[in-house]
Design brief:
single chain; alpha+beta; five-stranded mixed beta sheet
Length: 91
């Protein structure tokens, strides 16, 4: 949400424009427990690439980026407990 970020809410911690990536169909997420650009597999959701960070109080959470016009979908998805697997680095 814009009120939770800087004056450029689409720019993630890695400097990429997350809004554009999500609009192009990329699954993007935020997490603090792995390095940026790590691929996570989220049970029932699929794979996402970590391109942003969260407030440090959320050390063991994953935040999935959704399109701005998907607010209702995001609210419906809500907070869930899911199994998350860290995918091995690709050579």
């Amino acid at each position: 949400m814009k009120r939770q970020t800087s004056d450029e809410p689409c720019i993630g911690a890695t400097g990429r424009n997350l809004c554009r990536l999500v609009a192009r169909g990329f699954k993007v997420c935020a997490a603090n427990f792995v390095d940026p650009e790590t691929i996570l597999h989220i049970e029932g959701y699929g794979e996402c690439i970590v391109l942003d960070r969260m407030n440090r109080r959320y050390a063991h959470r994953v935040d999935i980026a959704m399109r701005e016009n998907e607010v209702d979908r995001a609210i419906e998805f809500g907070v869930q407990q899911r199994y998350v697997e860290v995918k091995p680095e690709r050579p």
